[in-house]
Amino acid sequence: MRLKFTVNGQPHEADDVWEGESLLYVLRERLGLAGSKNACEQGECGSCTVYLDGVPACSCLVAAGQAEGREVRTVEGLADGAKLDEVQEAFVEAGAVQCGFCTPGLVVQTHDLLERKPNPSDAEIRESLAGNLCRCTGYEKIMDAVRLAAQRKRTQGKAAHGKATQGKAHA
């Protein structure tokens, strides 16, 4: 079958997709987007997490045909060209990137959490990331990265709000 869908804002087609092929396989092997990792193939580790129509999903569990006509956003799609997203930057700066296998899924899941809840508690962070497994760390660096990203997003939000308010005062 031919699969037509949007990935990271760009239309894509994949030919000769077979019925049992996963979205993860199509992203990695057919489109060359190797950010999402293939770890468990059972939806247990979260390493392959992507946005599917704006909702985080384990791409190893999504049949490629289910993505027909839909919007997929991968960890690569969070960056704005060469500029990393605040979450990506925070993971690097906090030392939360170790072997890197779990990182893409953790970054996508953290991005989603902070979009929904800009100031999450530690308990809310843990709950949101519960489906993402890391074999290298005790998770403290990951928690630090989420807290740092949340702080930066709030600070940038306040700065953007201040600029908008300033512009209205001069109008």
Secondary-structure map:
Blueprint: E1 3-7, E2 10-14, H1 23-30, E3 49-52, E4 55-58, E5 71-73, H2 86-93, H3 103-116, H4 122-128, H5 140-170
Parallel strand pairs: 1-5
Antiparallel strand pairs: 1-2, 3-4, 3-5
Helix pairs in contact: 2-5
The helix count comes to 5
Rg from Cα: 17 Å
Structural shape: globular
Range of strand content? 5-15%
Biggest β-sheet: strands ordered side by side in the sheet = 2-1-5-3-4
Q: Structural class, judged by helices and strands? A: alpha+beta
The stretches of 5 or more residues where confidence is low (pLDDT under 50) are none
Average pLDDT, all residues: 93
What is the makeup of the main sheet? 5 strands, mixed
